[in-house]
């Protein structure tokens, strides 16, 4: 009896999985609208229109044939500080991201701070300036660019994060001949990440 019921269940399963012979997918495919027949190969322009599109783009956007990745107009801040005729070397520098962490953050995890750079409050730029006096340093900080000039060195540094340039502090440590510039970071989501 069990053998008979298992054969019937297999036949019932076969009837469910295979459609009857009268119904075919070809008829359904022929009755579909043209947009429903499209597949992954139809994405993008057809080969006949691709050449025309490239011709219109090349005629609308005429660029000099050089190896530049961007135009000078696209890079606005800090480019006027780059002086190619100035042969002074770039000093060694290091960028350190800092955050204030208390015991409740370290041991209990009460705040939402984590070790990522999104939870850092400030950026410390350390620049080694050997044979330099504090009076010889000219420092200009913009939102995303730091410009440092001395008689011996020049540094034009694009900062990895925007900063509050007016609220930064700088100190020169003469024992190590090192300038430390601390800049508070200015990001759109600081009110969420640092709350």
TrEMBL record:
Q: What domain of life?
A: Eukaryota
One GO biological-process annotation of the entry reads: axonemal dynein complex assembly
Give a GO cellular-component term: cytoplasm
List, for all copies, the residue spans of the domain called PIH1D1/2/3 CS-like: 90-185
Q: Where is this region: Disordered?
A: 13-51
Q: Where are the transmembrane segments?
A: none
Write one Gene Ontology MF term: dynein intermediate chain binding
UniProt record similarity statement: Belongs to the PIH1 family.
Q: What is the protein name for this chain? A: PIH1D1/2/3 CS-like domain-containing protein
Species whose genome carries this gene: Electrophorus electricus (Electric eel)
